[in-house]
Amino acid sequence: DLQVLRIRGNYLEEPALRTNWPDDFRSLTGLLLRRTGLRLFEVQKVFRLEWLNLSANRMYKFPNTCQNESSLFPNLTYMLLATNEIRFINSSELCLPKLRYLDLGYNKISVMNGLPLPNLNALLLSNNRLKAATDMSIPHTTWLPSNTALESLTMTSNDFTLVNETRFLQLFGH
Description:
5% of the residues lie in helices and 19% in strands. It is mainly beta. A seven-stranded parallel sheet has the order 1-3-5-8-9-10-11, with no helix packed on it. It has a two-stranded parallel ribbon with strand order 2-4. A two-stranded antiparallel sheet has the order 6-7. The longest helix has 8 residues, at 165-172. Mean pLDDT is 83; it is low at 134-142.
């Protein structure tokens, strides 16, 4: 069975990959669709993927990961969505129980809701448009991942110019 599929730098004629995935692809453990012009990635059947790289595309939406409150990617541990056009993530549509690494850098994300990713160790949010941290009415638990496993958070080159010392301690202090 095919384990890893790498399609890089090949623009797809249809910029949306939806339900027409062959059943053979469901056994993939790795999938790279980098620089393919992809705008949408949707599946309807459970995949065995352990890593997924959809970076450097034109995706405007976080891939669907749930179906009937169950994960479509129950084994996924590594996900790259950097350099896309994603503006927000609907946390109620996230079902990635084993995800440990998520790269969302160089997107257009301006607001983060709590990410229900209990095993997430590393989150990259550099070069987005995050500003929600400046709103004192939003506690940190509403936009940082709601987990205890997070070890690395990268948020360089966002717009936190209005974050004062009190808010900084509220977000990152004890």
